[in-house]
Amino acid sequence: MIGQIIQAVLLGGYYALTAAGLTFMLQVMRVINLAHGSLSIAFAYAVYTLAFRYHINPFLGLLMVLPVAAAVGWALQRLLLERAARGGELLPILSTFGLAIVLDNVMFQIFGANAKGLAQFLGDLSFAAYELPGKLYVGKLPVWILAAAVCVLGGLHLMLTRTGLGRRIRATAMDPVTAGLVGVDARQSAAIAAAIAMMMVAMSGVALGFRTVFDAYAGGPQLLFAFEATIIGGARSLWGVFVGAMVLAFAQTGAAMLHPQAFLLGGHVMFLVVLFARLALGQGSLGTRLRQVVRGA
Amino acid sequence: MGLLSVAALDVRYGQFRAVRGVSLDIARGEVVALIGANGAGKTTFLRAVAGAVPVAGGTVRLDGRDVTDLPAQARVAAGLALVPEGRKLFADMTVEENLALGATVGRAGDWTMERVFATFPNLVKRRHARCGHLSGGEQQATAIGRALMSNPDVLILDEVSLGLSPLVVDQVYASLEGLMASGATIVLVEQALARAMAVASRAVCMLEGEIVLDKPMADTSREEITAAHFGLGRSKGARA
Question: Does the domain spanning B4-239 belong to CATH 1.10.10.10?
């Protein structure tokens, strides 16, 4: 039982890491990035290639991929989302949907159908464990991933609340036109936010590669988990995301204890319960309530 | 040419021309009251001048420099600040954070956070309060302070008394008095005609997107402005 709880917390750490990037994009750019999962898999493949071809340690590989991810995020915002936004509210979301399909199939073309993992490049670390009192063993990697999630969310929170850049990003998220009137370059702030979000996406992709194996079409489920954690957490604050990720992980783990195949179902049921509870208990018209669920405001 | 010079400005919302060929030249140190009924195009005109609304034609010059194609934040950097109608504060942020955002462009000048707090003493104890929790007067003071933090050459105040009690409006204007006396260039929209006539040196009336009256306050009268406000003179002219 305690073992299950620990596993759920560790799984929640991974979900928090993957949901953080999605939530950040949603808050600042008001876009649900449907290419979120596919992009994270693309970065995982990048680190895999560096490790497989050039024998670069995946941690070092991630450090090398992070600046690339930032550039991808910047380009995504400036070249795709910003332009698509001129065509209406729905177009950016559709563009990310298209991007996801393209990415998935390009990755399938290049890397084929065989599942790949990053754990094989880590040597002993892939199965190393901490021993807890009571003969409980906890894998080192999941613990590190949880720690990384806490550090990333905490660091981002500090950046948003304590720095000038964070203030400008928050102002842009709340009201880009007024941000401009105050002297904030809203386009630049949004592009920087997208760059930061994409670095988190790269981290979550590598975390997935450490935890398990992935293939070209693994992005979809990752997007789904990130989205569920975001909505359960209230889509408002980064700590809400953390709570949402934990709730999702506990629901999945709990359901799996009842029946081994109910793992995914448990998460989906929890998501739907929270979603409908919010819709039922919210105030205003159905449209307003839906907006509250997604935007948290 | 004045400090702020607008020539033949056109703003359209689809087929609707909200601002029709407006030209306005404002010299340094002038306090201009922009008067007009709701829907006359005052706010749209000012937002277009500040760069928050795209223009369909015409030019905006600031100190001789053409800023028509510049985004809003570049106009702030060039010395133009707008206190928007409805205050538009970042409600989740504290007073201090809102003020700090105003200093983003980093223009040199003597407005600092401490000076804003000295000018609006009612904000001092609300320094770390979220703006969404402030009273209307405190919010308006924060919005004006935020604009002043950019050390503007031209300050545009759009309906600063909207939704405030008369007492609070008095307070807001009292704190603006020093600013106006110091030779600042100000454009303000004010519904209360008596107040507009008291503080401004020049009256500009807008009607249906056009300027119908533009005179020094000393040369005009309450009757003339009222007539322009309702378009009385114009319909009489049309009939004649």
Answer: no
